[in-house]
Amino acid sequence: MRSTKNTGRHPFSISIVGAILLMVVCAAISSSGQTIFGRISGTVKDTNGSAIPDANVTITNAATNLVRTATTDEDGFYTVTNLPVGTYTILVARDGFKKAQQAGVVLAADARLTQDMTLEVGQLTETVQITSGVGETVNTTSGEVARVVDQRQVQNLALNGRNYMQLVTLVPGAVILDEDQLALTTSLSISQAAINGNRPNYNSLSVDGGFNMDSGSNNSQINNVGIDFIQEVKIQTSNFSAEYGRNAGASVNIVTRGGGNGYHGSVFEFLRNDKLDARSFFSPVKGKLRFNNFGWNFNGPVKKDKLFFFVGQEYKYIRLDSAPVRRTMPTRAERGGDFSLRLRGPDGVVGTADDGVLRNPANAASTCVAGPAVSLET
């Protein structure tokens, strides 16, 4: 590796680089707005079921204190869009009614959550805390079939390859095609699971709304995001909107973690070692395996309620022998030209009428029954 040192300053080139970075950031924000942000909507009614217009709805992010407001229409309906992934508190206020507050509203990536609120007659200074179940379990806004794997599941599920693509196996209709998870981790391959009968390389992968597949090969990902840096994984399998329609298979969208108003950090080490493993059934000896996955992360506010950061590093150190495979070797009789045992028919007896035959692929008319010292004429 060669290192260089430049002591001169080039303001013009620095400003160009800054402008390019600004455009990239802006493009990333605009391109991901339809894929990682969600929406909360609902209807505000009184205890008699009548709609309450002109009610003030305030939605606050519990981690960052992001505040979004809306006003109900004549039908008591409100909607707030472009909400980042997180947990929210909904507060509804209207003159002549007690305030109603619903905490713990969990919003996933590109989710369309319906949260109806009911106001009781009373003073505006009074607040009714709603502690019942939050939101709906059935999506009545769109017909997509999807599943969200949240941060707790991502970090607590046993992933022996520490590859987030293993989480696709949680989806009904996913079939594993390659069980060598470490090979998939080191190769960045996406050819692991076929979903709903589609080819494995038909799936579409994105990170925070940005495309995460190598367009040159269309069979590998650009970045294998570390498990400890993932907020959630949303897997859409069918009936999703056209914005995800680049590929014919499922759409797998990774949402990375962000910072909040509190400082948090962690140091982690994931270990696999053949000393802790049993010998493979098909291997005469125990194969070598040394897998160390370690790193750190730290996050918090740059400016409270305004700007946040999340940084971290991860390393994967893998030393292993090739996985054992099964191969069929020719028998001594087959090496001598006798394939009669392999070509025996359904009755399992050599030399009966249901035995198979050998054919010369270069001469379709050439056929002979397998037997000792068989030779094919061309």
Task: Set out the fold topology.
Layout: H1 11-32, E1 38-46, E2 56-61, E3 67-71, E4 77-83, E5 86-93, E6 99-107, E7 112-114, E8 117-119, E9 127-130, E10 145-150, H2 151-156, E11 174-176, H3 181-187, E12 193-195, E13 204-207, E14 210-211, E15 230-238, E16 251-256, E17 264-273, E18 289-303, E19 307-320, H4 332-335, E20 357-360, E21 363-369
Parallel strand pairs: 1-7, 1-8, 6-9, 13-16
Antiparallel strand pairs: 1-4, 2-3, 2-5, 5-6, 10-15, 11-12, 13-14, 15-16, 17-18, 18-19, 20-21
Quick structural summary:
With 378 residues, the protein is mostly beta strands. It has helices spanning 11-32, 151-156, 181-187, 332-335; strands at residues 38-46, 56-61, 67-71, 77-83, 86-93, 99-107, 112-114, 117-119, 127-130, 145-150, 174-176, 193-195, 204-207, 210-211, 230-238, 251-256, 264-273, 289-303, 307-320, 357-360, 363-369.
Textual characterization of the structure:
This protein has 378 residues and is mainly beta. It has four domains: 38-130, Carboxypeptidase-like, regulatory domain (Immunoglobulin-like); 142-257, TonB-dependent receptor, plug domain (Ferric Hydroxamate Uptake Protein, Chain A, domain 1), CATH 2.170.130; 268-327, no CATH class; 332-369, no CATH class. It has four helices and 21 strands. The chain has helices at residues 11-32, 151-156, 181-187, 332-335, and strands at residues 38-46, 56-61, 67-71, 77-83, 86-93, 99-107, 112-114, 117-119, 127-130, 145-150, 174-176, 193-195, 204-207, 210-211, 230-238, 251-256, 264-273, 289-303, 307-320, 357-360, 363-369. It has a five-stranded mixed beta sheet, with no helix packed on it. A five-stranded mixed beta sheet has the order 10-15-16-13-14. Strands 1, 4, 7 and 8 form a four-stranded mixed beta sheet that branches. A hairpin with a 2-residue loop joins strand 20 (357-360) and strand 21 (363-369). The protein starts with 10 loop residues before the first helix and ends in a 9-residue tail after the last strand. Mean pLDDT is 80; it is low at 1-34 and 369-378.
